[in-house]
Specification:
The structure holds two protein chains of two kinds. By secondary structure, chain A is an alpha+beta fold. Among the domains of chain A are: about 270-410, Flavocytochrome C3, Chain A, domain 1 (Alpha-Beta Complex); about 485-610, Methane Monooxygenase Hydroxylase, Chain G, domain 1 (Up-down Bundle), CATH 1.20.58. Chain A contains 18 helices and 19 strands. The radius of gyration of chain A is 24 Å and the shape is globular. Chain B is α+β, with helices and mostly antiparallel strands. In chain B, the strands form two sheets. In chain B, strands 2-1-5-3-4 form a five-stranded mixed beta sheet. Chain B has a two-stranded antiparallel ribbon with strand order 6-7. Classes of the chains: A alpha+beta, B alpha+beta. The interface between A and B is large, with 81 and 78 residues.
Chain lengths: ~650, ~250
């Protein structure tokens, strides 16, 4: 490991690491907690659960979100469920099995110790949420129900219809509201973080913009926690919310918090296909649908052509003329292979010409056999809201005709590098949930994002931040008059002034769409050296185009959504270049990162453990300098590295 | 499709607003309503005009950020959807589409079609929670909850906090919003210990913030994008009455 990064993984057997670590780290007394301020940016599962828990412990928390309410954070849109190794189904689940599945599912590019800790606390999360009144699905005996998700052979996913993320977030939001009412959390809605303030090497505050008035504000604290989500919107079209952005993560990168594995992005196999250039976002259809839906394309090209011309309907194709390609290729896991595998398999069939819609980029997800087997009522109870959502968007009824789906950008495994304490390379600056990189390796398993967000916020950060803050009890409240605050304030002000005064011609969205095309074509589902090298040059040129030709109507001192978007796009463009650079460096395939040059004969991702069993940790070296690559070696002591097989 | 859009424009909370007319053409019926507004904004920016401000985020009907009164209906002419899930196939070629913000004294306009829903936050903060700290809770399966109760709690908990109920109600009542939270907890054993306090505190806060009273017209239920039933209002009334009788 290079000197700049130290993962601080505790010694000892994996099952004892977290227990021993908790026993050995420092604790802050209640009297001192009252004197300490913590800023939390983001109110999704990770941020809201952290803010509530930290306030319950007695810290003063300032919580920030860009929407008009903490409840709008994009965790709300997670559909399918949350994993926990409760073994309520008696199907031989355990902490070890959840740990093993997650490391394997991540294609052996996650840190073992973090993943094991995640599995250890997973059960507590369910208990906590039940206590908050989260209405999880129950069976007729009144106990909690489970469903299956991709990449595993047990049933460990807890759910609340197709709205699990909503219910978990509303649980965390209710805990947050209780603390706001008590005065432990000061909530700032419609505020966007635009810089972090580092004083004498430690994170001491942030600069924000009040999105209603345009006022630039300075906020100080003894520690800063970033929980601002992932960066999927670098592709313009993704399943992320329109306002999801990377700016907090990118600002801290430029102030010294290194960025890990930026090229690890997840393409989700079951999204509604793109309908045209005017489309603004993609809609996910939950992975839970693969419990009962079967994925297929026709075997015969003549049927494909007739389908595209609408001369026949999918139901007209005989059973023996259908290619259930996941069941054919992966008999053990079938339709429940992990997301990266299912996505590539769909692309393979569509590239071979078997896509079922006019664009050739869609496959069927068919519920006919499940409806025959279980009845329409059961399917409606399980997926009713998803079917309704699909019908509203496409005008097709999935009870009667198969859904059309295609892969889309969904989640980003990469993110701010953190050590075992969830602290970045800047002391006092922490990163939680999708913002950090730590638990999912090169591919995240379904229903694990909710688990990680809540694990970080409820059960990990509240302990580990105490260890850092125990050395800050003598530090008086930080003044925002410090020159570093003024410097950061001025930098933000100048950037905004430049954007609103730019005499450009192009809208923010038109440039963002261009970035999206570059990213999807070259840094998307299949990547190669030539495409990635080209992408870096194209993105550099686009950065120039943005700063010289973007047009931001309105002024800086008012509610101005174009300005918000421009500030976010400036950061997406720079991150896009780093993603391409990272993908170019990692000439192996692993998980969601598929380098065409590195495939098995069957077309599966082929890892190169000898050269690439490390975390790529990128360090900002200056605005016009190439970033520096640091490496955190990944050591596997409890899981044997194998070619992943779901056959 | 070609459409005439009649859009509410208002510079800020203090400014006097008014309708502006815009023509928009070549819209695909498969375009979503908000994508149509994106196209309008692109057009306005290219003409050197200010784009229309509107709230939106997830664009899949769950975050509750989008609003809009479209042709006199909250979330537009389709049933059981939010504005972001509304598609242009629900309109006719050549139609005039009127787009306004939520109208309620409790939801002041910030700009154009964007309103401030801070009042909803204050109501939730008044009692929309179970008082448990992180940690020290029993096993998730320690209490069996009848499936019907869990399902009914989930029906109520599906509220997305968009404010359509308030915008639709002639009295600007927030009863359906409050009832959804009170009812969710009333159906669950976890919510029982604080049931009386919760119902009183949330109703008192709602009254304090200037929302009107409920006169049972049922308009809120009809326009709720999540189909939250007014039977939850009946339950809120029972909870409130029981709480008051204990005083």
């Amino acid at each position: 490991m290079t000197q700049k990064i130290n993962s601080h993984i505790p010694a000892g057997p994996i099952k004892d690491k977290w227990t021993n670590h908790k026993a050995n780290i420092n604790v802050v007394s209640p009297a001192n907690k009252r004197k300490l301020d913590i800023i939390v940016v983001g109110t999704g599962l990770a941020g809201a659960s952290a803010s509530a828990s930290l306030s319950e412990l007695g810290y003063n928390v300032k919580s920030f979100c860009i929407q008009d309410s903490p409840r709008r954070a994009h965790s709300i849109a997670a559909q399918g469920g949350i994993n926990a190794s409760k073994n309520y189904q008696n199907d031989n689940d355990s902490v070890h099995r959840l740990f093993y599945d997650t490391v394997k599912g991540g294609d052996y590019r996650a840190r073992e110790a973090n993943v094991h800790r995640l599995a250890e606390v997973s059960g507590n999360i369910i208990d906590q949420c039940v206590a908050q009144g989260v209405p999880f699905a129950r069976d007729y005996g009144g106990l909690l129900d489970n469903r299956s998700f991709g990449g595993v052979l047990v049933s460990r996913t807890f759910y609340a219809r197709g709205q699990t993320g909503q219910q978990l977030l509303l649980g965390a939001y209710s805990a947050l509201n209780r603390q706001i009412a008590k005065g432990g959390v000061k909530q700032y809605n419609r505020h966007e973080m635009l810089d972090v303030v580092v004083i004498d090497g430690k994170a001491r505050g942030i600069i924000t913009r009040n999105l209603v008035t345009g006022e630039i504000e300075k906020h100080s604290a003894h520690a800063v926690v970033i929980a601002s989500g992932g960066y999927g919107n670098v592709f313009f079209l993704s399943t992320n919310a329109m306002n999801s952005n990377t700016s907090s993560a990118w600002q801290i990168y430029k102030k010294g918090a290194m960025f890990a594995n930026p090229c690890f992005t997840q393409i989700h196999p079951t999204c509604i296909p793109v309908h045209g250039e005017q489309q603004s976002k993609l809609t996910l259809m939950s992975e839970s649908l693969r419990n009962d839906g079967r994925i297929w394309v026709p075997k015969k090209m003549e049927d494909v052509e007739k389908l595209r011309k609408k001369q026949i309907r999918p139901r007209d194709i005989k059973e023996e003329d259908r290619d259930y390609y996941l069941e054919r290729r992966y008999p053990a896991y079938g339709n429940l292979v992990p997301r990266d595998v299912a996505s590539r398999a769909a692309k393979e069939r569509c590239d071979a010409g078997f896509g079922v819609n006019e664009t050739g980029k869609a496959v069927y997800l068919d519920f006919a056999s499940a409806i025959d087997r279980l009845g329409r009522d059961v399917i409606e109870e399980r997926y009713g809201n998803l079917f309704q959502m699909y019908e509203k968007i496409t005008d097709d009824n999935p009870y009667e005709t198969p859904m059309q789906i295609y892969p889309a950008i969904h989640y980003t495994m990469g993110g701010t590098w953190v050590d075992y304490n969830l602290m970045t390379t800047v002391p006092g600056l922490f990163s939680l949930g999708e913002s950090n990189f730590s638990d999912h390796g090169a591919n995240r398993l379904g229903a694990s994002a909710l688990m990680q967000g809540l694990a970080d916020g409820y059960f990990i950060l509240p302990y580990t931040i105490g260890d850092y803050l125990s050395n800050e009890i003598q530090t008086p409240r930080i003044s925002t008059d410090h020159p570093e605050f003024n410097k950061a304030y001025e930098t933000v002000r100048e950037k905004i002034t430049k954007l609103v005064n730019n005499a450009g011609k192009r809208s923010v969205d038109s440039i963002h769409k261009e970035l999206g095309h570059i990213m999807w074509d070259n840094v998307g589902m299949a990547r190669d050296e030539k495409g990635l090298t080209e992408a870096i040059e194209k993105i550099k040129a686009l950065k120039k185009e943005f700063w010289s030709n973007v047009k931001v109507p309105g002024t800086s001192d008012e509610f101005n959504q174009e300005l918000e978007k421009a500030l976010r796009l400036a950061d997406f463009i720079e991150l896009g270049e780093l993603m391409a650079r990272d993908a170019l460096n990692r000439s192996e395939s692993c998980g969601g990162h598929f380098r065409v040059e590195s495939a098995t004969e069957e077309g599966e991702a082929k890892r190169n453990d000898e050269e690439f069993a490390y975390v790529s940790v990128w360090e900002h070296a200056g605005d016009d300098k190439e970033p520096i690559l640091n490496k955190e070696p990944l050591v596997f002591e409890n899981v044997e590295l194998k070619q992943r097989s779901y056959k | 499709m070609n459409l005439k859009l009649k859009v509410w424009r208002q510079k800020n909370a203090k400014a006097k607003g008014g309708f502006e007319i815009y023509n928009i053409s070549n819209i695909s019926p498969d375009t979503s309503f908000l994508e149509m507004l994106d196209i309008l904004n692109e057009q306005l920016i290219n003409e050197g005009k200010e784009p229309v401000a509107f709230d939106h985020d997830c664009r899949e009907g769950i975050c509750g950020m989008c609003s809009l009164f479209i042709n006199g209906r909250a979330h537009g002419p389709d049933d059981d959807v939010t504005t972001c899930q509304l598609h242009m196939r629900k309109f006719k070629d050549g139609e005039t589409v009127t787009i306004e913000p939520w109208r309620s004294a409790a939801f002041p306009v910030i700009k154009d079609l964007v309103v401030e829903r801070e009042a909803f936050e204050k109501i939730q903060q008044a009692g929309g929670y179970v008082s448990v700290n992180t940690g020290g809770v029993p096993d998730g399966n320690a209490i069996a909850i009848p499936k019907e109760d869990a399902d009914e709690a989930m029906d109520a908990a599906a509220c997305i906090g968009c404010g359509a109920c308030v915008a639709t109600c002639k009295n600007s009542s927030a009863m359906l919003f409050v009832a959804a939270k009170v009812s969710q907890f009333a159906k669950l054993p976890q919510g029982k210990p604080e049931a009386a306090r919760r119902a009183k505190a949330m109703v008192a806060k709602m009254d304090e913030l200037g929302f009107g009273g409920c006169t049972n017209t049922g308009a809120c239920e009809a326009e709720c994008p999540k189909g939250i039933s007014i039977s939850h209002i009946a339950r809120l009334n029972r909870e409130y009455l029981v709480a008051k009788l204990k005083d």
